[in-house]
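hey m, so remember when u said the tokens were messed up on ur end? i reran from scratch. heres the input so u can diff it against urs
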Amino acid sequence: MIWLKLFYVYLKIGLFGFGGGYAMLSLIQDEVVDKYGWISSQEFTDIVAISQMTPGPIGINSATYIGYTAIHNAGYSAPYSILGSALATFAVCLPSFILVLIVSYYFVRVKNNKYIEAAFTGLRPATVGLIAAAALTLMNTENFIDYKSFLLFAAAFLLTWKVKLHPILMIIIAGAAGILLYA
């Protein structure tokens, strides 16, 4: 039964998770942590951190990891857990794949339509709101935020925005700073 639930949950997340992976985070947490209890809040936070650092979109990376963990926590062996990873990853990608095929076929015909342009203009602020909701979701009791965290955030923000520091270098620097500040 967990297989169907996992497929359904990630199909739904893939279908309704507009705005990319960060916008999906609140949907993912609601389903896999709050509703089904497949992982804990702390595991979810760890998954988000790992998914941010690994290559690829965060929504797909987290689906892969959560698919594995959910099946493993249900008592299945490692090979079945790997199938859980593949199932969740496939399910979260399937709606986007189908929608891109359909939209690309018709978008060429209507790309200069004023209603289409207006719809995209309306989607932009909603996407920013979903990303802000994801940031607020990660600010929970497991993620104690102290002055050191604010300093790291401010430094990372300024270095990325003003200095245009490469994101990979920023991850390495933030990791080193974390070791120095918290070890």
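this time it looks ok to me. The two ends are 43 Å apart (CA to CA). if urs says something different then somethings off w ur setup not the seq
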